[in-house]
Amino acid sequence: xxxxxxxxxxxxxxxxxxxxxxxxxxxxxxxxxxxxxxxxxxxxxxxxxxxxxxxxxxxxxxxxxxxxxxxxxxxxxxxxxxxxxxxxxxxxxxxxxxxxxxxxxxxxxxxxxxxxxxxxxxxxxxxxxxxxxxxxxxxxxxxxxxxxxxxxxxxxxxxxxxxxxxxxxxxxxxxxxxxxxxxxxxxxxxxxxxxxxxxxxxxxxxxxxxxxxxxxxxxxxxxxxxxxxxxxxxxxxxxxxxxxxxxxxxxxxxxxxxxxxxxx
Length: 264
Ligand SMILES: CC(C)=CCNc1ncnc2c1ncn2[C@@H]1O[C@H](COP(=O)(O)O)[C@@H](O)[C@H]1O
Fold this sequence. Notes:
It is a single chain. The chain is an alpha/beta fold. 47% of the residues lie in helices and 15% in strands. It has a seven-stranded parallel β-sheet, sandwiched between helices. Strands 1-2 form a two-stranded antiparallel ribbon. It is globular and about 70 Å long. The N and C termini lie far apart (64 Å). Bound molecules: N-(3-methylbut-2-en-1-yl)adenosine 5'-(dihydrogen phosphate). The site of N-(3-methylbut-2-en-1-yl)adenosine 5'-(dihydrogen phosphate) has 20 residues, from strand 5 and helix 6.
């Protein structure tokens, strides 16, 4: 015999029995006297996450070719690393690239500053942090994100490559995310460049001496990252990768066009 159990449809979901709540979404929406915890529940968070993607995609879709620059939030303004970040921002802008950073202080500020001083497009993708933090003054287009993973999608999606200055955990996280995406073929034609051979040398030695030598990565994976001390060399590596990508796209288009012509 069919059991009669209470049931309720929640959009695409169906709940029955004890899972049926004693109020509806509408009631909870309209009942302003009720508690506000539902605002912080996961289904609602999804809407916020969606909104962040929509805002990010909308603001960045028309950006010209861009490069994302990572690096420490703690680099002092009077340090050589800060100077290098300014020089890098400037060189990227002069080569026609918009510069995207995390919008914070230190190396991020330096790269935004260089881009702005050279008349380029200076973008900051900020992140909500548990302590007071504001977008640096050299950002012309700034977007604030609540979620790291949404922001990281923007860093990759709108950049033609990453250049990484000396940094800490945040920088390493961004660096290894990029390398994983390239290694697994999720992004193609995406140079990852480390600026500062003294700073990064130990990490590269460890990757070679431990990861590669024990077979955790393949020897060719080491080619995914380039190390240099020369800002112009870093920018040139991005430009060369772009040229190769454009040439490949041209070839693919020509092949499609000649197939279409042959079929006619
Ligand atoms: C002084 C201080 C800690 C400020 C934090 N303010 C921040 N504002 C924006 N992005 C950040 C900040 N801290 C870390 N990040 C992200 O993580 C990277 C730097 O982290 P770290 O300093 O290397 O580990 C940046 O590329 C940036 O994307």
